[in-house]
Design a protein that fits this description.
single chain, 101 residues, alpha/beta, 4 helices, 3 strands, 17% strand
Length: 101
């Protein structure tokens, strides 16, 4: 594995995304941090949230899978406050067909 490949892999890791989120936590602006499993989920869920929370800024993150989304939820649960709201979306996909808990 080349050094460039290693950098690309680290850029896509959960720890890198978590660090990005922690840097994006605002102390002055109301922000909703939204986590999705994949790219296509954002268009569906974000528009629904915007209807109800119009005075908030939005930051979106793609977790890649359920396990990562649950990891972010565990890590960020204690960081929520009146200025920062964290929302996590996971869906069932093929879980009924493939036995995944």
């Amino acid at each position: 594995m080349s050094f460039l490949d290693m950098l690309k892999e680290y850029k896509q890791s959960d720890n890198t995304t978590l660090h990005e989120v922690l840097l994006g936590i605002s102390t002055s602006e109301k922000t909703i941090h939204i986590f999705f499993e994949g790219k296509t989920d954002e268009s569906f869920y974000k528009n629904s949230i915007k209807k109800y929370y119009k005075n908030y800024a939005y930051k979106t993150y793609k977790s890649g899978n359920k396990k990562s989304c649950y990891y972010f939820c565990e890590q960020l649960h204690a960081r929520k406050n009146e200025k920062n709201i964290f929302v996590f979306f996971v869906d069932k996909d093929l879980d009924d067909i493939i036995p995944i808990t």
